[in-house]
């Protein structure tokens, strides 16, 4: 099966079994094309358990794709726009942080999840994740900016101003 063939099969798939056949082929051929796996995981015909199954299988088979596949899976769950989806998204963003604490994307996703949702995560959980990011992430400026946005959303102008000022002082 060529690349264009499996991309077409993924697009046309309307069941777990059809996607699993393509997935199995990709894994057996040691394909490390993250976009192919993203297309499978993002397929609208999969339920939560099936999404998690594919995600964890990719993470186990190809450890070098773990960060990106966890981050993508979080985005898939976030796109469902409900409290259960937000909780699962948050869990996968944390998994991506556990793979690479220095990259800022999962911290951005956690902050954005808080900013768009009145459901989940809580302010305390969001702040905890972002403050962890201040210690670990390579871009402190980005984390300061995220903290400023979070504090602005909850109406704490003093802390929002403090963190935007700290961000302005960073050159990264």
Discrete helix count = 10
Low-confidence stretches: none
What does the overall shape look like? elongated
Major sheet description: none
Kindly estimate the percentage of residues that lie in beta strands according to DSSP: under 5%
Order of helices and strands: HHHHHHHHHH
Radius of gyration: 18 Å
Mean pLDDT: 90
Q: Helical amount among residues, as a percent range?
A: over 70%
Number of strands: 0
- Helix/strand-derived class? mainly alpha
- Our measurement of the CA-to-CA distance between the termini, rounded to an integer number of angstroms, reads 44 Å
Give a verbal description of the structure.
- With 172 residues, the chain is mostly helical.
- The protein has a domain of 61 residues.
- Helix content is 74%, strand content 0%.
- It is built from ten helices and no strands.
- Helix 7 packs antiparallel against helix 8, helix 8 packs antiparallel against helix 9 and helix 9 runs antiparallel to helix 10.
- It is elongated and about 55 Å long.
- The N and C termini lie far apart (44 Å).
- 35% of the residues are buried.
């Amino acid at each position: 099966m060529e690349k264009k063939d499996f991309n077409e099969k993924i697009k046309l798939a309307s069941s777990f079994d059809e996607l699993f056949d393509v997935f199995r082929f990709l894994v057996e051929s040691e394909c490390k094309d993250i976009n192919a796996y993203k297309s499978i995981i993002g397929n609208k015909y999969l339920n939560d358990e099936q999404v998690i199954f594919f995600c964890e299988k990719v993470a186990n088979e190809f450890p070098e794709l773990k960060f990106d596949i966890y981050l993508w899976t979080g985005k898939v769950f976030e796109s469902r726009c409900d409290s259960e989806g937000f909780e699962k998204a948050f869990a996968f963003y944390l998994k991506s942080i556990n793979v690479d604490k220095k990259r800022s994307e999962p911290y951005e996703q956690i902050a954005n999840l808080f900013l768009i949702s009145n459901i989940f995560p809580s302010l305390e959980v969001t702040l905890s994740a972002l403050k962890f990011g201040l210690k670990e992430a390579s871009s402190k400026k980005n984390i300061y900016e995220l903290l400023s946005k979070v504090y602005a959303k909850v109406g704490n102008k003093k802390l929002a101003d403090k963190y935007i000022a700290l961000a302005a002082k960073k050159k990264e």
